[in-house]
Write a structure and sequence with these properties.
- Helices cover 27% and strands 21% of the residues.
- It is an alpha/beta fold.
- The strands form three sheets. The chain has a six-stranded mixed β-sheet.
- The two termini are 26 Å apart.
């Protein structure tokens, strides 16, 4: 029996245009994605997770006052020259050896914060007609194997749209997108299950489960035609979960 294989996930969108209101006052003048965790900013961990998963094209959807993110993924010639001249090889490697190859990173602007769905739609011309990943840097996921690596491996044999999820306390469902699952479709190791529906920020008494969508997605390019005509949802924003829900069939 021949196993179906699906197109490789080569591109990832990083929506980084938000205002970071949950992190004020730290984000008043600094992008939330540049907040440090030990010695690296959040966006750096997200980039490393994507690269581990085999992503080849890194697409950042930015907004106003996000120049620090672009600078982080560029050479800093003055600093590199200084470190080279002072023979600080270890420090030089730490700021340059991980930089993406020329032409593998792109930036596009989301002119106004209209929600995650709108941010993803802004990158449509850079994606084209192929599956792609979406990574939210402020959802930091650590593990012996990256979350996106696991999803890319599963997508290679299952295809379709895919969401990363985590179990949360029921009283917190109103803060997250929640998945209505088909428990009978669970795989043997219970890592892969079909979704019957998605609900954005339901009240605890109305939530179909306690499985919350985290900031990891693999989506098919058909999502763009849905987002094109998507009406605002929760919070008056273009919600990505609403668009995904329309493709669940």
């Amino acid at each position: 029996m021949t196993q179906t294989t699906f197109p490789k996930v080569r591109k990832a969108i990083f929506p980084v245009g938000g205002l970071g209101t949950r992190f004020l006052p730290a984000t008043k003048s600094m992008p939330k994605e540049m907040l440090p965790v030990v010695d690296k900013p959040l966006i750096h961990y997200a980039f490393e997770e994507a690269r581990e998963a085999g992503i080849e094209q890194f697409i950042f959807v930015t907004g106003r006052n996000k120049h620090a993110i672009e600078d982080h993924f560029d050479h800093v010639h003055e600093l590199q020259t200084h470190l080279s001249e002072t023979r600080k090889r270890r420090e030089l490697d730490r700021i340059s050896e991980w930089l993406p190859a020329a032409g593998s990173i792109s930036f596009t602007r989301q002119q106004e914060p209209r929600g995650l769905g709108h941010a993803v739609w802004c990158a449509r011309h850079l994606i084209g007609n192929e599956p792609f990943a979406v990574i939210l840097a402020d959802d930091m996921v650590l593990g012996s194997q990256g979350c996106l690596s696991q999803m890319v491996a599963a997508h290679a044999t299952s295809g379709g749209n895919m969401l990363g999820v985590m179990d949360i306390p029921r009283e917190k469902t109103a803060s997250y997108g929640i998945v209505d699952i088909d428990a009978s479709s669970a795989s043997d190791d219970a890592k892969l299950v079909k979704a019957r529906g998605l609900v954005e920020k339901p009240a605890p008494e109305n939530a179909p489960s306690t499985l919350s969508i985290i900031g990891r997605y693999i989506l098919q390019p058909e999502i763009f035609s849905v987002l094109e005509n998507q009406t605002p949802g929760a919070g008056g924003e273009i919600q990505l979960t609403d668009a995904i829900a329309k493709l669940i069939h």
